[in-house]
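Supplementary Note 3. Input sequence used for the single-chain structure prediction.
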Amino acid sequence: MPSLTRTKLMRAEARSDAARDRLLCTIDEIKARLHPSAIAAAAQDELRATAEALVCKGADAARRRPARVVGAVSLVLGLALAAPFTRRKRRRKPESPERV
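The predicted structure, written as discrete structure tokens, is reproduced below.
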């Protein structure tokens, strides 16, 4: 078995130190990515991107079929505004005469 020369040993130690440094950087990066605030921020960004895409698709659909959009908005408004009126029209139970 050939013995390592001093130069080869120094190169091996340097490669080992470089590999250790890369490993520590990778571990720090993983820790940063797995931090709860980083996960929440990533989820928020993804949700924002999805919402923007959905709004764009909805706007395109509205431009292609404006009558359907008007009908859908009218239906939603009608249902939303009908609720207060139906509550007002409910009959109150007649008060029973007090027993003496």
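The chain is about 80% helix and 0% strand. Residues 18-88 form one domain.
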